[in-house]
From TrEMBL:
Name the record gives this protein: Endothiapepsin
Entry keyword Protease: yes
Species in which this protein is naturally found: Echria macrotheca
Keyword set includes Protease: yes
Active-site residues annotated for this sequence: 126, 310
Coiled coil spans: none
Length: 423
């Protein structure tokens, strides 16, 4: 069987914009100033932008998570993704392949201005990585699928960091890598004039499938940065001294554009109080320990669940014992090797899932626990909660984050704050 990465590139390139590569890079997106609000000195809030071509597939989402965290890809997951991508290829007519399913979550991205004059790229905010890397004009055309490209040669403020490179290796053995530039980077109204911008010269095919994601803004800790010979500071590390407070808060939403608040906490976006928990920065992630869980109206089980808060991961990944206990309460559910994870009839009503933050509780409604149909029009749905056993790390991804207002406090020491909110 051909490697899944090759299948992804072949099938999904044809399924997005079949003529994207010959047309060259896209013109940058115009930033809508109404999506950015300066609340006060050192306080900014800006909205996410909907990604209209996001591809929904549970197996593909899990596959990307394995890649991201360097985990070996199980054969059954490769087969599930291969089966899906073959289906996409057959359905493709040369126009946009995947229309978002309106009753389920879309993906959201953030416009970022790089260089002088500004080149606007749509980037994914990722608290599970520490690199600001972008598709660039240094990529071969075969690795570009309609993404907007950063052109350092067109920026008067770009300076090549001679002798510096970056490289990230993924779970299937593929990698993304390239040169490093210092350039001006503005997100919302916040500007870092000398930000390390990692310009891709090669990109893993797993990233080429979505023409509207032009790279990532890593918001984890600097130690996780991949630049060699010296890791570089993240955009947040560089900007936080200019903020009113050295923090940002994620107010992600279910099936709607959320916001990121930098430098302040917006009390109108949560209910009750914020409960803070300590962060272990040694792995480089926003690593914290939950105090337990509850399924539906059942009793709370006190147990330590150490994991990371990751805006760049879609699903919620927890120990197998917890996942198994949850799906015992879901009528008709099964752990499907065909679909790559836990599935169930879409007509099934899912129980809520509650996790502990100290003595506080955050409840994810059952509707949030449904990732969506395994394919367009299917009556079988894919679970938003999956096992972390093959990945090697528990991940509180967007499924969990969308149920709370989450404060990433970069002070000394760093802490992570969770608060309930009106859903």
């Amino acid at each position: 069987m051909a490697p899944v990465s090759s299948i992804l590139l072949t099938a999904l390139a044809g399924a997005t914009l079949g003529s994207a590569i010959p047309h060259g890079p896209k013109i940058g997106t115009v930033v809508n100033d109404r999506d950015t609000t300066e609340v006060g000195p050192g306080k900014y809030s800006f909205k996410q932008v909907r990604n209209p071509k996001y591809t929904f597939n549970g197996a593909l989402s899990i596959y990307k998570t394995y890649l991201k965290f360097g985990a070996p890809i199980p054969d059954y997951l490769e087969a599930a993704v291969a089966n899906y991508t073959k289906g996409v290829s057959k359905r493709s007519t040369g126009s946009a392949s995947a229309t978002p399913i309106d009753t389920f979550d879309d993906a959201y991205i953030t416009p970022v201005s790089i260089g002088t004059p500004a080149q606007v790229l749509n980037l994914d905010f990722d608290t599970g990585s520490s690199d600001l890397w972008v598709f660039s004009t240094e990529l071969p055309s075969s690795q570009v699928n309609g993404q907007t490209l950063y052109n350092p040669g067109a920026s008067s403020t770009a300076t090549l960091m001679s002798g510096y490179t970056w490289s990230i290796t993924y779970g299937d053995g593929s990698s993304s890598s390239g040169n490093v530039y210092k350039d001006k980077v503005t997100i919302g109204g916040l500007t870092v004039t000398q930000q390390a911008v990692e310009a891709a010269q090669t990109v893993s095919s797993s990233f080429t499938q979505d023409p509207d994601i032009d790279g990532l803004v890593g918001l984890a800790f600097d130690s996780l940065n991949s630049v060699s010979p010296t890791p570089q500071k993240t955009w947040f590390s560089n900007i936080k001294s200019s903020l009113n407070s050295p923090l940002f808060a994620a107010n992600l939403k279910h099936n709607a554009a959320g916001t990121y608040d930098f430098g302040y906490i917006d009390s109108s976006k949560y209910t009750g109080s914020i409960t803070y928990t300590s962060v272990n920065t040694s792995p480089g992630y926003w690593t914290w320990t939950s105090t337990g869980y509850k399924i539906g109206s059942g009793s709370f089980t006190s147990t330590s669940i150490t994991g990371i808060a990751d805006t760049g991961t879609t699903l919620l990944y927890l120990p197998t014992s917890i996942v198994t206990a949850y799906y015992r309460q879901v009528s008709g559910s099964s752990n499907s090797r065909t679909y790559g994870g836990y599935v169930y009839p879409c007509s099934t009503t899912l129980p809520s899932f509650t996790f502990g933050v100290g003595s506080a509780r955050i409840t994810i409604p059952g509707t949030y626990m449904n990732y969506g149909p395994v394919s367009t029009g299917s009556s079988t749905c894919f679970g938003g909660l999956q096992s972390s056993s093959g990945i090697g790390i528990n991940i509180f991804g967007d499924v969990a984050l969308k149920a709370a207002y989450v404060v990433f406090n970069g002070g000394s020491p760093p802490t992570l704050g969770w608060a309930s909110k009106t859903l």
